Amino acid sequence: MRAIPILLTALVGGFLLLPVAVLATHTSIAFHGQNAVPDAWPSLVASLEATAWSMAVILLLGTVAGYMLARRAGVLWRALEFLLLIPLLLPPLVIGLLLMSVYGPYGLLGQWLSALRLSATNTLLAVVLAQIYEAMPYYLFAAQGAFSQVDAGLERTSQSLGRPPLQTFFRVTLPLSLPGLSAGFAMAFARSIGAFGAVIVIAYYPHTLPVAAWIALEEQGLPAALTLAALFLLAALPLPLILLLWRRLRHADRFV
Amino acid sequence: MLTVSCEIHAGRPFPVRAKLQLDEGMLCLFGQSGAGKSTLLSAIAGFLPLHAGEIRWSGRVLADNRRQTPPWRRRFSYVEQQANLFDHLTVRQNILYGAPDRRSGAVKDVVEMLDVADHLDKRPSALSGGQRQRVALARALAADPVLLLLDEPFSALDVAAREQIMDALRGFLRKRRLPTVLVSHQFTDVQRFGDEVAVMDTGAVVQTGTPTDVFARPATRRVAELLGYRHFVPAAEGVELAVHPDRVVLGEFAELGRVYGGRVERVFPFEGRMRAFVRLDGGGVIEAAWRDANGVAGQSVRVTLIDPPRLPCFGSSLLPHHPIN
Fold it and tell me: Which ipTM score applies to this complex?
């Protein structure tokens, strides 16, 4: 009887980790790499560059919005919080179609961008927009949760001791909410760098790694796509793993 | 000097209206939970807006219904019931958080007075509840405030720790001549700590005075109830005597107050001592301290009510409330 939970957990672990293990033991990188590499490195650079921009925007705006959602009360704020769940629930393909309708050449904002000689389709800007749209809700709600965990009484105390709100935020609120913010950042980063459904609709070019892997699958087959998938993991995993390790070490340190 | 004449709504079921002054010494806001004490203190600290009236410090308007000096500019240190220590900082860093001069002897004095010197390099999570509260007080004093606001800071402490900290703090505040407003729902704290007390009930200040005067002469039956007077004995037409269990002695001592005859109904333990319900010959039941556990139901006794306050019957107030003009 006691073995059943263990077996079920092993089943979950096996289901999730088996494909990763297969990828790790994939031996055809050397053979197909010669064909995949020409697309791989530009795609890697495009992915990293776009993700850097999108995460910078998400971090800045998501932190502010998450704080406001955590601290503000009232019907309007709760209604906004509910509405902001919608992008989180949209299928990525639908996100791409909606972004095209707004930022595409004939879209509501796309026409203004065109007037400014900017384009939000098939450009790095388009990739960034798609990544932000897909990843922002993950960070936003994680930030809201993290800030909610910080007792408002701590902020009152800091202010009564002479620290204005901005100093209080950086000296008290932010340090105490870092574990939650880092978890949200890791999730948003993974979502951003891995964005595919919306990106392929609004930004076929430049090829990000997920898009390049899809093209490799269609044109060269699974082994070539797996090569790019392995490269993608090498690019996407380190940051979230480092953040996870940091959180664990910090948690241990607090009780020393 | 702190001058308060204001009305605060803040989403409460009833507004808080108060008219107070504090020049120096310790003013205690006393009342039951929900009376508006913490709301008033929070408004003085600058965390709640005023609906009407104003709060002044040394003649300067800090807040009225249109503008508000923010809390970080008032130099009023505010200590709440939760210690609110910053867990990511050490005790030393907590104490120095708001200190204008980290090397000043004043900070050292505070650390020694509150006996937290041995904990400076620890994190708050390693401290007990009493130690955390000491550190919170040290932090508030190290910030060199012009007014100290304490919202039931001793309530989480055991009796011995509470008394020790209160005595040390009172001496320190007197020496520094730092005006202080303390919120408490325990009148024993008020008697030990306060120079003046404002009794609050349902958002209004219903009586002010020294703790001794207020306790000896509650203005209304409601105030008497808040102060722990449990029984009300008819004395004359339209007048009743308020009886506090700690102000009843066995025996006849006419020089101390009113003497009554009665019969013991029941003897019971209370906080390590014994008490008895005594039915008075003239009507009414009171509690009295009893000498031992061997009381006999029906036993005749003589009891003396020590200088019992005389109150009008049916809860009518001797002093009208003063609305904000």
Answer: 0.83
